[in-house]
Amino acid sequence: MIPINTDELERLIRRTGEGDMDALETLYKELKDSIFGLALMYTKSFSDAEDIVHDTFLAVWKSSSEFRKGAPKAWIMKIARNISLNFIKKQSRSRELDENFASEDFCGKSEDSVMLMNLLQHLKESEREIVMLHAHGYSHEEIAKINGRPGATVRWKYSNAIKKLSEISGGEK
Q1: S-S: 39 plus which of 52, 126, 150, 154, CB 3.0-4.6 Å?
Q2: Cα-Cα-Cα-Cα dihedral sign, residues 90, 91, 94, 98
């Protein structure tokens, strides 16, 4: 799928606000993977991340008429981030990463995914979020809008996170 530009995303959000389910479906196809990656970073559970994707698009459907022009991807990702944060607040804080990896949700996933998730656990939550969003093609400026931090802070945190990952994995910069 060819990525949709900002103007088209804004039009799709406006049409969604007018009740156009086809527009919502197009938004879903365009952004579901990015939202899933963000939700997975927070929940560490494939099924919970899928639930967050659906909840995000339900929230987009309900609040699309409130969207104001500018940064549509960041607007939707911020909704996903807020839903993810609310979700993990409701969950028991004692749930461990190993329990999630041992669950049925993780069965059949590639070894690379396991290795990546293990590496990302060495980062602070804010660093993981930035790395995951960047991996899904978001610019530092878009990430700054999503998580409410200055662009310079996002760039600095991203750089430090990559250095940490490189050191942990034994790779070179």
Answers
A1: 52
A2: negative
Place of tokens 């993990």: 88
- CA 88 to chain CA centroid, Å, is 14
Number of Cβ within a 10 Å radius of residue 60: 24
135-164 pLDDT, tens per residue?
A: 888 888 888 888 888 888 888 888 888 888
Residue 126 is which amino acid? S
**H-type helices in the chain, by residue range?**
6-17, 21-43, 46-63, 72-90, 97-102, 111-120, 125-135, 140-147, 151-169
Cβ neighbours of residue 95 under 8 Å, at least 6 residues apart?
none
Between CA 162 and CA 127 the distance in angstroms is 9
Q: Tens of pLDDT along 16-42?
A: 999 999 999 999 999 999 999 999 988
Of 43, 50, 23, the closest CA to residue 120 belongs to 43
User: If you count them, how many residues does the chain have?
Assistant: 173
Q: Which two tokens stand for residue 98?
A: 């190993």
- Residue whose pair of structure tokens reads 């978001």 in the numeric block: 138
